[in-house]
Specification:
The complex is a heterodimer of chains A (about 290) and B (about 325). Chain A has about 290 residues and is an all-alpha fold. Chain A is about 70% helix and about 0% strand. Chain A contains ten helices and no strands. The chains are: A mainly alpha (about 290), B alpha/beta (about 325). Chains A and B meet through α1, α7 and α8 of A and α2, β6, α4 and α7 of B.
């Protein structure tokens, strides 16, 4: 009887349950674009690029040339260099802010979902307050008091992301904490810490990471909006949002100055969304054999 | 039965607050299990079997109210500190759950789950723990145990998963194993294998076991004593041979009659127990089984029978009109 079971088992595991699903061309395009953006942003210093802040008043709004591949902006600064250095800011803020949200929100959500009771009411209540507070006003207030810097911007966007991550973490913890394997772990004498870290965290991490990628996309857009409004990074530094904002002034003369950073942002956000969606579909417990 | 039993459950009651009032899931239950012995707890769904096992393990839902005394190995579990209780669980008290689909963590490999339990309780190093895990998996009849360590629960069949769950439960040599419907989620051919495995490991480790099931056929050959539960109460309790030789409680009889018989003629209708168990939030004044009992008289509806003694002190039943005739059973 045992040998029969063994042979059946091996047949079952030989069939790839997940690899069979095609990821699609679009997914690989998105991965390709993300790799490109990350590569140029990381190696911006070593790339043979003109300085993104050097002005050339004689060559203002110059069009595409061998010297300036994507032309220059209203102050004669190289557009390609500014786009690439802008990608750095957008990516740093776009990645760091959701990491803050993921860590704090994820931890709070898991604790609230696992321990329930008063702690949960407190966490959910304070998150509701944070959600109800207009985010733009908060951003305005904080930058007015603490000044404009990349660090402050990241912190604000990170804090604003906490409630969403908390909700995702709490929702999945609530359903998982009732599953028998948690009771089984308790029956085996596991501590709360162990159950949270070893039993629940690996399960909660899948939906959290998929949500994280969507969070990156949203943060890049929000950072763009804040920079467009002049609340983002302080001037000589470029970010995609501030470039769109500056390009707005010369929309009739040189529309590319606003459109180029907009396209870069659009493609990047789309890529993060596509990858996030695909990963979420892949880790969807209804499809996997969890 | 002169020495103190390994586990004694005294007057244990569990109440769960619900929006419709307090639900009495377990009602003043008294049970004992001696070292190395097997107790079967039988009853239909919702009769409080699982709640009783959770009460013994002190793993009730937070809102549940527990009263009574649970003595295990000379200690009152209800008075133990959470830390001491935690150390006791797993090492002295272990449990196997009904559904191996959900009782194993879906995102951790079999090896991780087994090795970490061993490391946690026995403070073994990685290599020793891995070696022990392979031995344990081999002991519960899993072929190619080294390969299984790197597999995830969904890659194993239901029977295999239950064997893994048993291996984890046995890993720290517990004194008492609670098997909560260990075979209900499995198909019939695997059921017998799993039950035989449990019996074999029990004998080998001289471990006491509580076998919870809804199937009288399961407890028949594999337990020393049987407690039949109905609506949160123990309604009949006897050594297994005595119970099957002469059952006194009409509910036990009805439960046994509802089992399909191999020697019955084809197309014999199964005598099902009509009606449903009483609403646990509205306890009846009389015997809980009286609305469904075919022997019930007026007194059964107005007064609750206590567990009374039959011919031998070990055989107890809660009924005013116990069955007198001998029932011949073919189980």
């Amino acid at each position: 009887m045992a040998t029969l079971e063994l042979s059946l088992d091996e047949n079952a595991s030989a069939l790839p349950a997940r690899r069979g699903r095609r990821l699609g061309l679009l997914f690989w395009f998105a991965i390709g674009w993300m790799t490109l953006i990350f590569a140029v942003a990381i190696f911006a210093n070593v790339l043979p690029l003109p300085s993104p802040t050097d002005m050339d008043m004689l060559e203002r709004r110059a069009s595409f040339s061998m010297e300036h591949w994507l032309g220059t902006d209203g102050l004669g600064r190289d557009e390609l260099a500014r786009l690439i250095y802008g990608a750095r800011i957008s990516l740093v803020v776009g990645l760091c802010a959701p990491i803050i949200g993921l860590t704090i929100g994820g931890a709070l959500g898991m604790l609230a979902g696992y321990f329930r009771g008063r702690f949960e009411s407190l966490v959910v209540g304070s998150m509701d307050v944070l959600l109800a507070f207009p985010p733009l006003i908060l951003a305005l207030a904080v930058t007015a008091y603490l000044g404009q810097s990349i660090f402050n911007l990241t912190c604000i966007l990170g804090v604003l992301g906490i409630p969403a991550f908390m909700r995702v973490a709490r929702a999945s913890t609530l359903t998982l904490a009732r599953r028998e394997f948690v009771i089984a772990a308790q029956a085996l004498g596991a501590t709360h810490t162990r159950i949270l870290l070893r039993e629940l965290l690996p399960n909660v991490l899948l939906p959290l990471l998929a949500f994280f990628l969507l969070g990156v996309a949203v943060t890049i857009v929000v950072e763009g909006a804040l920079s467009f409004l002049g609340l983002g990074v302080p001037p000589p530094i470029s970010s995609w949002g501030s470039m769109i904002g500056e390009g707005r002034e010369s929309l009739e003369v040189a529309p590319r100055l606003a459109f180029l950073p907009a396209i870069a942002m659009f493609l990047t956000v789309l890529s993060f969304n596509l990858v996030g969606d695909t990963l979420r579909a892949l880790t969807d417990p209804r499809q996997g054999a969890l | 039965m002169s020495e103190a039993p390994l586990l004694s459950v005294e007057n244990v009651a569990v109440e769960l607050p619900t929006p419709r009032g307090n639900l009495r899931a377990v009602d003043r239950v008294n049970l004992t299990v001696g070292a190395g012995r097997t107790l079967g707890i039988v009853g239909e769904s919702g009769c409080g079997k699982t709640m009783l096992s959770r009460a013994i393990l002190q793993l009730l839902p937070k809102k549940a109210k527990l009263s009574g005394r649970v003595m295990f190995d000379g200690q009152d579990l209800l008075l133990l500190s959470p830390e001491k209780l935690r150390k006791l669980r797993g090492r002295s008290l272990a449990v196997v759950f009904q559904d191996p689909m959900t009782s194993l963590n879906p995102v951790l490999t079999i090896g991780t789950q087994l090795i970490e339990t061993l490391q946690e309780h026995l403070e073994l190093d990685q290599a020793t723990a891995t070696k022990r895990s392979v031995e344990l998996l081999a002991a519960v009849g899993i072929p190619a145990p080294e390969q299984r360590l790197t597999q995830y629960p969904h890659q194993l069949s239901g029977g295999m998963r239950q064997r893994v769950a048993i291996a984890i439960a046995l890993s720290c040599e517990p004194k008492l194993l609670i098997a909560d419907e260990p075979t209900t989620a499995l198909d019939v051919t695997i059921q017998a294998q799993i039950l035989d495995l449990l019996a074999r490991e029990q004998r080998r480790r001289h471990m006491a076991m509580i076998l919870i099931t809804h199937d009288l056929g399961v407890v028949a050959g594999r337990t020393d004593e049987v407690a039949v539960m109905y609506a949160g109460r123990v309604v009949e309790r006897a050594p297994t041979p005595a119970l099957f030789k002469k059952m006194r409680m009409p509910y036990t009889e009805a439960l046994l009659a509802a089992l399909p018989r191999i020697d019955a003629a084809p197309h014999t209708p199964l005598p099902a127990i009509s009606g449903r168990p009483p609403d646990p939030t509205r306890p009846l004044k009389g015997c809980s089984f009286s609305p469904r009992c075919r022997y019930a008289v007026a007194r059964c509806h107005s007064e609750k029978p206590d567990l009374a003694q039959a011919e031998t002190p070990e055989h107890q039943y809660a009924c005013f009109h116990p069955i007198e005739s001998h029932v011949v059973v073919g189980v």
